[in-house]
Amino acid sequence: MKEEKSCGAVVYYPNEDQPLFLLIQHENGGHWSFPKGHVEEGEIEEETAQREIKEETGLDVVLDTHFRQVTRFSPKEGVMKNVIYFIARALTDKVDRQLEEVKQIIWLPYQEALEKITYPNDQDLLIKAKKFLQ
Q1: The pTM is what?
Q2: Exposed, middle or buried: residue 134 (CB in 10 Å: 0-12, 13-18, 19+)?
Q3: Which pLDDT band holds residue 100 (cuts at 50, 70, 90)?
């Protein structure tokens, strides 16, 4: 069984009355989720998460490593993948979409984000992130 590892984050922007959460629609599959990507040689998890967020959204973020969640799944036959998620505060809400990998980027309040997310494991991740922020 081949093992893969990716890192990313639940990105939020501290809007006046409630935080907004960033969702991206991935070109590959069309699902709504969070920015993430494969760990490159020599990188630590935090570096991968920040690089992937920057590449996919153009955002600079402050990563909080006190929130660290692992999602494990099989994307295809013979492969197991671990995705490590942190929580990250965006310094601005101005995004610059990576055209090759990202169809759309949206900022949504919690409830709307929860309803937009495609997969239940990503919904669970958002629920945990919101609790962490409170």
Answers
A1: 0.92
A2: exposed
A3: confident
